[in-house]
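wait is this the right file?? whatever heres the structure
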């Protein structure tokens, strides 16, 4: 049975500028635990990445929180990315982008 789970989002201007793919808090469990390396592949590009985070107060100093992300150069503002788990190789994910 094919794996129907995936992570998808539209790349923001901030993500494109920083070379990051934000990972929403409620989707963290789809990826290996924070700090654990995994392989992300897009066409011929294959890279070892990890979910990272940084502290932020963009909602105000009374609401500190963390932003989670994967570093990935080449993401473009407005494109929709979809990340799926590789069904044959553990800790390997595939990235597809669509404008």
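ok assuming it is, sequence goes like this
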């Amino acid at each position: 049975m094919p794996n129907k789970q995936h992570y998808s989002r539209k790349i923001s201007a901030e993500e494109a500028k920083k070379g990051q793919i934000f990972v929403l808090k409620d989707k963290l469990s789809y990826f290996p635990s924070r700090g654990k390396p995994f392989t992300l592949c897009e066409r011929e590009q294959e890279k070892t990445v990890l979910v990272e985070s940084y502290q932020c107060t963009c909602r105000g100093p009374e609401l500190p929180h963390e932003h989670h992300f994967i570093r990935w150069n080449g993401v473009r503002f407005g494109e929709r990315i979809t990340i799926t788990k590789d069904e044959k190789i553990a800790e390997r994910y595939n990235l597809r982008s669509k404008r």
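The CA atoms of residues 7 and 60 lie 28 Å apart. so i think its the right one actually
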